[in-house]
Specification:
Family: Belongs to the membrane fusion protein (MFP) (TC 8.A.1) family.
CATH topology of the largest domain: conserved putative lor/sdh protein from methanococcus maripaludis s2 fold
Distance between the termini: 103 Å
CATH architecture of the largest domain: Beta Barrel
InterPro entries: MdtA-like_BSH (IPR058625), MdtA-like_C (IPR058627), MdtA-like_HH (IPR058624), RND_pump_MFP (IPR006143)
Shape: rod-shaped
Protein name: Efflux RND transporter periplasmic adaptor subunit
Helix content: 25-40%
CATH class of the largest domain: Mainly Beta
Number of helices: 5
Keywords: Transport
Number of strands: 24
Subcellular location: Cell envelope
Strand content: 35-45%
Oligomer: single chain
Structural class: alpha+beta
Radius of gyration: 49 Å
Number of domains: 4
Largest sheet: 6 strands, mixed
């Protein structure tokens, strides 16, 4: 068989398309795919189901913002005790935190100097009394002689004057002796009232001066709760509010107090004002220095209370979702927030009574989207 016969029997290869035709075909297929995808998205958007949300009808309510601050229990009366005379401290009987009764001896100073002064005053009194006795005898003798005409008026007046000087010397010596006795009693420092020792500034052997503070005692009785309050809060609080005092370590221990004292000056370092709350019949569970929480309500105002889940944001500002009652479509409404309280947002401006606000499910919404209400609270 010849080579030509073999070649003619083989099948011929398919014709090749030009490169330009192939490119056109690929672009047509891609355009058809994109068109099909766009149509599917459009149909999906048209058939998108409403979002299930919870709404609340806007209504004004009385809102009294509460402020809670931390403070400490302090004594209503603090006394700084000191010796009335100076000397070396010989003995100290009490320490910080100890409860003492009225008249309890707290410390003593060495009484040697005062005892010496007492002996000297006693000696001066004895000498003055001796002079008074002699002057009295001279006066009586001159008086008798004058009545009998055996002395002169001048001698009698001299004796009378000497008697009066001697009597004055005795009075001065008696006063000095009384002062010496008092100074000796001042060598013992006693508690003027029952209370708790809160500070001590001396040790045995230390030399103290008169009127130098030795102990500080918190007198028994009603206590105060002391708070450092910002000046703006003081201005917003109604006069004479009732303050609830709660023990920080045990919330079951609580009492109600009244504002007893407001400092007239602002602390330049913290910008706060010291406020003392008087606690009548202070519970035994509130000892000195205990940390407490004071809660007070400010003036009541009209505002709208919404759950915190209702709050969203638009253009970086607080807003809420408003539901159109006819179309059930939602839109955002900017609001002004008055305060954030426990679990709620207090709205001051931006809403009207009767409007329907989305309170749950707002994170799934977009402007103009329709919703389905799962439940509404009035």
């Amino acid at each position: 068989m010849s080579r030509n016969a073999t070649s003619s029997a083989l099948p011929s290869s398919p014709p090749r398309l030009p490169r330009r035709s192939k490119t056109v075909l690929l672009l047509a297929c891609a355009g058809a795919a994109l068109s099909t995808s766009g149509c599917q998205k459009q149909r999906a958007a048209e058939t998108k189901l409403p979002v299930l949300v919870t709404t609340q009808t806007v209504a004004l309510a009385d809102y009294a913002p509460r402020t809670s601050l931390t403070g400490v229990i302090a004594a209503r009366t603090l006394n700084n005790l000191s010796f009335r005379v100076g000397g070396r401290v010989a003995e100290r009987m009490v320490d910080v935190g100890q409860h003492v009764d009225q008249g309890t001896v707290l410390a003593r100073i060495d009484p040697q100097e005062q005892q010496s002064d007492l002996r000297s005053a006693q000696a001066d009194l004895d000498a003055a009394q001796a002079q008074l006795t002699q002057a009295a005898a001279t006066y009586q003798r001159q008086k008798t002689l004058l009545s009998q005409g055996f002395t002169t008026r001048r001698d009698f007046d001299t004796a009378n004057q000497t008697l009066k000087v001697a009597q004055g010397s005795v009075d001065a010596a008696q006063s000095a002796l009384s002062n010496a006795n008092e100074n000796l009693s001042y060598t013992e420092l006693k508690a003027g009232a029952a209370g708790v020792i809160t500070a001590r500034q001396v040790e045995a052997g230390q030399v103290v001066q008169a009127a130098q503070t030795v102990f500080t005692i918190a007198e028994d009785g009603d206590r105060d709760a002391v708070f450092n309050v910002q000046e703006t809060l003081v201005a917003q609080t109604p006069p004479s509010p009732a303050v609830t005092i709660t023990l920080l370590g045990d919330p079951q221990v609580r009492a109600v107090g009244k504002v007893r004292e407001i400092s007239p000056a602002v602390d330049t370092a913290s910008g706060s004002i010291r406020v003392k709350i008087g606690i009548p019949d202070t519970p035994a569970g509130m000892p000195l220095g205990a940390a407490v929480i004071g809660t007070v309500s400010a003036r009541s105002v009209k505002a709208i209370l919404l759950p915190w889940q209702a709050l969203t944001s638009t253009a970086g500002k607080p807003a809420v979702w408003i539901v159109d009652p006819s179309s059930k479509a939602v839109s955002t409404a900017p609001v002004e927030v008055l305060a954030f309280d426990s679990g709620v947002v207090v709205v001051d401006k931006g809403l009207r009574e009767g409007q329907s606000v989305v309170t749950a499910g707002g994170q799934l919404l977009s402007p103009g989207q329709t919703i389905e209400v799962a439940g509404a609270s009035q």
